[in-house]
């Protein structure tokens, strides 16, 4: 999706002046005063990652201005409870710690988990994020961290989201961009390096006061602005040791803007999702929605939640952005949109409550050294490849079946003790192309069965 600088950020804010001549750069290291405690239950530690399913989540502004709907209104429209509620809060100009306890309490009273999108509207010199890196905001961050620790309930914090865009003061473009040699490693772009340094400083300051109840989200946008090599989202990744969840943001703007066109959910997220599947982190759609104009929004919504379930299994929470702003993002922008949302989210795969058990193994490894990886591309309209690993000499029976249980085709392959590939071209015996739809690829050994879902689109 092409992004332009002229539209405002998702929460309606615009960049601020980044000049603060009084802020002197330093390169001090924050001393850790306490070791991060071991994670406990959801009552005292982080939000559990569901082994099966995906949390139903939404941004539901608690006011009516601009056609927004609050928590209760949204659930009534959706006909389903949300497990996570996202909202925005900015760093104040007076640098007084302002953890939104009242709003978090209200969300917990609704039996949901708060997701705080914490926006660093900061001043620094010569770039905004220098204010964080230099330590100017340390007392504010530590005060906020102590308030979070005292609150003592699990929550998400998403700090500095969409950093690969140019519409926020914390974005790489506004913090040195692709310039080399002005900060950190002279071989790396200064903008991403400043973001990484600021993210890590915030996280380490929380760690230093013993905060253990935050699940930290690092969340790039699906498209980068500017779309230059230095500004690709992977260049902003601050490290496994400071990230708990990987968030992904993206929107179908339809034809609501002069620069936009209709884009499917799959095309919105496929590239950025694939960039980070190698990391051992759960993923979250941090915010997403569809415009009404330019296509069938109800169908887009139904397809979105179906594709998320079938194609993006690492996504463990998905957050609808429910407001009428640049365009009407609401689930009830029309009756067909609302019925589409209600139908999509009625799937029990989308969880209304926080689980009590968590994912223990996301590698796909099965007993006996047998593993079936994700199919690609999926959805497909030519052929699809499914990688698998089986012990050398182990017989693997493969069936392609439709959702009615009828066999389309079958094959037998021998395990190689390394990765092997099964390819299906969307045909059945005797070589006739199948109809568009959902199919099952079933891999069997004498002791294990594993099934992958395939979506064929002509």
Characteristic key phrases:
single chain; 458 residues; alpha/beta; Immunoglobulin-like; 2 domains; 8-stranded parallel beta barrel; 8 helices; globular
Description:
The chain has helices at residues 71-78, 101-109, 130-133, 138-151, 190-208, 265-275, 297-311, 335-345; strands at 54-59, 84-90, 113-119, 155-159, 214-218, 245-252, 283-290, 315-321, 350-351, 365-366, 370-372, 384-389, 395-402, 407-414, 419-424, 427-428, 432-433, 437-444, 449-456. It is of the alpha/beta class and 458 residues long. It folds into two domains: 54-351, Glycosidases (TIM Barrel, Alpha-Beta Barrel); 365-456, Immunoglobulin-like (Sandwich), CATH 2.60.40. The strands form four sheets. It has an eight-stranded parallel β-barrel. It has a four-stranded antiparallel beta sheet with strand order 10-11-12-15, with no helix packed on it. Helix 7 (297-311) packs parallel to helix 8 (335-345). The two termini are 23 Å apart. The model is unreliable at 1-44, 63-68 and 360-367 (pLDDT under 50).
